[in-house]
Amino acid sequence: METEAASKEIMELFLRVVNKYNALEKIPVRRYSDHGLYHSERHMLDRVADNPDRNITDLARNSGVTKGAISQIAKKLEAKGMIRRYKRAANDKEVFIELTEAGREFYEERGRMNKETMGPLIEELKHHSEEKVLFLVSMFHWLDQFMDQVGETMKSDGHRGG
User: Fold this and answer.
1) Contacts of 147 (CB under 8 A, 6+ apart)
2) According to the model, what pLDDT value does residue 23 have?
3) Burial class (CB in 10 A: 0-12, 13-18, 19+), 69
C-alpha cells in the first residue's frame, strides 16, 4: 500500500475509533455501582488511585485535558461521594484529590471489570509477535504526541483547517 494512502486510512480509522470512544463516554454505566458513573468519571477515579498526591494540574496534564475539565469531573465525583478535594496548608492554591472509601471500593471493582474488558485485546495481541506489538505501542505514542503538536499549532496560529 502506498504510504500516503496508508497514512490517510490510519488517520480515518483513528478518528473513527475516537468518535466511537467519545460516544461511549456519554453512556453512564451502573454495572458495579449505583452511581451511574460515566467513562470519564471512572477514568478519573483510576488516575486518582494510580497517582496519589497529584493536584488538578498534574491530573490534567497526564490526562491530556484541561484543568477545567478535570475540575468539572472532580465536582461530579465529589457530589457522588467518590472523591474528596483538599488543599494543603503549605499551598492553598493547589487542589489535590483523594478517593473516599466508596471511591476505593469502586476502584477495586473497576480493576476486576478492566481485566474482563481487556481480555479480548490481550488475546488478540498474543497472536502477534512482540515486535509488532511494540510497533503498535510506539505508533500510539507517536499519535499522542502528534495530536499534541496539532493542537498547539491550531491554538497558536488560529488554524482553520479541517
Assistant:
1) none
2) 87
3) middle
The CATH code of the domain at 31-120 is 1.10.10.10
Question: Could you give phi then psi for residue 121, rounded to 5 degrees?
Answer: -65, -45
**CA distance linking residue 17 with residue 110, whole number of Å:** 22
pLDDT tens digits for range 30-67: 655 566 788 888 889 999 999 888 888 999 988 888 99
CA angle centred on 49, ends 105 and 152, rounded to 5°: 140
Q: Is 46:57 a contact under the CB 8 Å cutoff?
A: no
- DSSP annotation of 90 reads T
CA angle 145, 95, 147 (to 5 degrees): 10
Rounded distance, CA 11 to CA 25, Å? 21
